[in-house]
Design goal:
The structure is a homodimer of 221-residue chains. With 221 residues, the first copy, chain A, is mainly α. The first copy, chain A, contains 10 helices and no strands. Chain A has helices at residues 4-27, 34-40, 45-48, 55-77, 84-101, 103-110, 121-135, 153-166, 172-193, 204-219. The radius of gyration of chain A is 20 Å and the shape is globular. The relative contact order of chain A is 0.11. Chains A and B meet through helix 6, helix 8, helix 9 and helix 10 of A and helix 6, helix 8, helix 9 and helix 10 of B. The first copy, chain A, binds a DNA duplex (30 and 30 nucleotides) through residues 3-5, 9, 33-36, 43-47, 49-50, 54-55.
Chain lengths: 221, 221
DNA sequence: CCACAGGCGAGAGCACTGCTCTTGAAATGT
DNA sequence: ACATTTCAAGAGCAGTGCTCTCGCCTGTGG
């Protein structure tokens, strides 16, 4: 039955995070204040502490939501297609589109880590979903190119553990190449979003497309 | 002669940024407060506003210093060698080593952009030095692999403008590949430093080395 | 060499933040 | 009907960025 008090409590938390998310989208993480969230919700600042332990915890809630949101976007983008390269293109494009549409949320996820945040258990769910979707394309690779072999046994073990967790039967070299490509993808998006290519690249669309193809080449898609 | 008042002024600014840098290295950008800098320097908080207009400007000074520091490290790393691949390895390793040694400075440069910061003119000097050093290895490429051709004329113009500014005679495709590899490099370092590979990679050294080689392959080094 | 404008440090103060504690009311479960 | 728990509210503490005013004092221009 979930006790109606507990339900009211969850509703309050939902209201709080919703308002917090609005402020995050508008002013960025630095401009998010518990007091102004309370003000906007018509309560006094101390009341909101009944529902959220601290500002950092509120940010953590937003991080979890944002991960889920991004994972949703990527999963929706790689719909029915089973061509690895098309998969990869869609996935990359959806990450970039989401980042451009939600710059502050993106910065929260992939910018400087928030001080009091330590990747709680709630985060690894959506995060796993996201990276699973991004790694998915290599399932359909045509294997045109052999990735370099892995020389470190512990790294190979890492890769095999991850592959097993995702239910993938590609080898360690391919999976590590995919993880590397994902890091490259987020590096590319971060460079664009955080302004590191200002005065360098003006046609961001074309540069992004070019790099996505290059990464697809490396992955043998 | 530079007026002894002006010299004293510069010395004060140097003291302030030095103390600010100490606090940045210890507590991170979020924990840097103008008041505590003033306290540590034995002055009252309003006095420091004579030398630094705002907290954001102080952070900007730190950003410029950090860029210079990182550029120094990379330039020192790619010493006399003229083998492109060795160059690239040293450059990548020096970026990663600097990032690990100065995580908060790295986060300041490549994490979420600080709100009131707009890449002032002072930044582009050290930043250009840094990226010039990182692009340098492709000068000595053996050209084993042809990068994909560029289809966007404006992107090609971007690349040629940058190449001209750096005095490079490599073609647009190679320069764009190099810029992409740089973005990949920082994506990789950020992933490691910001904890996105926690519970995934344990042998960060090996993973980094693997990716550096893959990028070198793509660059034809 | 000297007057003085300008740079200077100090202090008070404003508006804001995160967070804690107490108090009294209201809802709850027995 | 009652005891317990949950709650909103308010006051309050310590800290922040930043502004303004007030004298002092010193380097600089005449």
């Amino acid at each position: 039955m979930a006790g109606q008090r507990e339900r009211a409590r969850q509703a309050y938390i939902a209201d709080i995070t919703a308002e917090a998310r609005r402020q995050l989208a508008r002013d960025g993480a630095a401009g998010l204040s518990l007091r102004s969230v309370a003000r906007e919700l018509g309560m006094v600042s101390s009341a909101v502490y009944r529902y959220v332990a601290s500002r950092d915890e509120l940010l953590t809630l937003l991080i979890v939501e944002a991960y889920g949101d991004l994972a949703d976007a990527v999963e929706a983008a790689i719909g029915g297609d089973d061509d690895g390269r098309v998969h990869w293109r869609s996935a990359c494009a959806s990450v970039r589109a989401w980042a451009v549409a939600h710059p502050h949320e993106y910065a929260l996820l992939y910018g400087s880590p928030v001080p009091g945040y330590s990747a709680p258990q709630d985060t690894i769910g959506p995060a796993t979903r996201l990276y699973a979707a991004l790694v998915e394309p290599v399932r359909h690779r045509r294997g045109r190119r052999r990735p370099s072999t892995v020389t470190s046994p512990v790294l190979e073990a890492d890769a095999e553990r991850v592959a097993a967790a995702l239910g993938f039967d590609v080898g360690a070299p391919v999976l590590l190449a995919a993880l590397g490509a994902i890091a490259s993808l987020f590096g590319l998006v971060s460079f664009e979003l955080f302004g590191h290519t200002n005065n360098v690249i003006t046609d961001h669309d074309a540069f992004f497309a070019l790099r996505v193809e290059a990464l697809a080449d490396e992955l043998g898609l």
